[in-house]
Design brief:
alpha/beta; 7-stranded parallel sheet; 14 helices; 38% helix; 15% strand
């Protein structure tokens, strides 16, 4: 039986990469594959998974990797013992295809892994969810407008950003190590989930790799207009107000938290902001007209929240191809987003509005156009577009076809 091994630090379904990886594994099993998932063994909150799980390292190795990163700026170069054990497991398993999602997450040593993969003769698919693999430090550079990654990273302007380093700047050394190791795989195919990311990578040291664009997909049977939207309104005391919804796994400046706070001072009496994914500290600091909801793995509750909203507002300053846009549109809810990376690729005149970065009043003006026209003016068009473009089985079937093409020529 064909064997698929996927790699990602998190497996939780309330993260986009965790959910995507699990869903690809489930589809592969339906197609006759054995599915294995390697993840950080130091992570809490592991939920039931149909694929066979391979933990890499444990809590101690994650903590030590984090300390190593903070002191040396050599993220991805600790976890030596854990990675050697993982490579031994790969040799025993002998997968037909290895599909990498993220390897930055304080659990893997990419030098050890890629020195093995360079000679293992196993086809490698790498889905790019952010920019870390071709920079010397950061996982995104758009917010600060840095373009050093095109030629040579050094003197990084984002040393305090993930994966943060407090003492040293080894961005030049990291860049050169990644360039040497990540271009060493004979059979590597890079999958980007947006056209924007494909364009960016054509300017990086990985420009000569094989590429394929496969957009993220979602479960259209879960993300659809929900009959529970009234219950959600009652639960959070939203009444008849027009809901401006924001959703992300972790709120920060780059995801638009500051923009929402600014927006809150401009709301009318019949408008309210609801933010999903806030932590306790953020919750306590929210203005009175902003309702905070902790991150949830209950996707049906999330669908109900999308359905209750007049629009999803996504004021992200750096993003690849956010699945929250897809989920909202599938629930019949239009999206308003900044002109950021791949966030615009799911938004058109049928599904919402695109606003220039930093134009908070522009976000509200677009929202009020939806409010004036009525959400029903957009709902059916949104759903139709989602059905035509976002079905997870349609998108993830492209991965199975890619896997099959790789093993057919071996």
């Amino acid at each position: 039986m064909k064997k698929l091994l996927q790699i990602n630090p998190v497996i939780r379904t309330n993260t986009s990469t965790g959910r995507i990886m699990q869903e690809i594994g489930e589809l592969a099993m339906e197609d006759g594959w054995e599915s294995y998932i390697a993840y950080s063994g130091g992570r809490d909150g592991i939920k039931p998974c149909k694929s066979k799980l391979i933990p890499v390292g444990g809590k101690l190795s994650v903590v030590l990797h984090g300390i190593w990163t903070r002191l040396t700026d050599r993220h991805g170069r600790a976890s030596v013992v854990a990675t050697r054990r993982f490579v031994k497991k790969i040799k025993e398993l002998q997968p037909d295809v290895i599909h990498i999602h993220n390897i930055h997450g304080y659990f893997l040593n990419y030098k050890i892994l890629f020195e093995y993969l360079a000679h293992a003769g196993i086809p490698v698919i790498w889905t790019v969810h952010d920019c870390w693999l071709y920079t010397g430090h950061c996982n995104h550079y758009a917010r600060v407008g840095c373009d050093k990654w095109m030629t040579q990273c050094e003197s990084c302007p984002q040393m305090s950003a993930f994966p943060a380093s407090f003492l040293l700047d080894n961005s030049r050394r990291n860049y050169n190590d990644k360039k040497r190791l990540f271009t060493s795989i004979p059979d590597l195919t890079i999958v980007t989930v947006s056209e924007w990311m494909r364009g960016e990578m054509s300017k990086s040291f990985l420009k000569d790799c094989r590429y394929k664009v496969i957009h993220n997909g979602i479960d259209l049977e879960v993300f659809k207009e929900s009959a529970d939207s009234a219950d959600v309104r009652d639960k959070y005391g939203l009444g008849d107000k027009h809901v401006i919804l924001g959703v992300t796994s972790i709120w920060c400046r780059e995801k638009g938290l500051d923009d929402f706070i600014q927006m809150s001072s401009l709301l009318q009496e019949d408008e309210v902001i609801v933010l999903v994914g806030v932590n306790d500290k953020q919750m306590a600091a929210l203005p009175d007209n902003v309702t905070g909801i902790p991150r949830t793995e209950n996707v049906r509750q999330l669908a109900a929240l999308y359905s209750a909203a007049a629009a999803l507002v996504n004021p992200t300053w750096q993003d690849n191809y956010p699945t929250v846009n897809l989920e909202a549109i599938a629930c019949g809810t239009p999206v308003i987003t900044y002109r950021t990376g791949g966030s615009v690729e799911s938004v058109n005149e049928d599904t919402g509005f695109i606003v220039e970065q930093g134009d908070v009043q522009g976000l509200l003006d677009a929202f009020r156009k939806i409010k004036e026209a009525g959400k029903n003016a957009y709902a059916s068009r949104c759903r139709k577009y989602a059905v035509e473009h976002f079905g997870r089985n349609d998108r993830y079937r492209e991965y199975l076809e890619l896997y099959q093409s790789k093993i057919s020529i071996r």
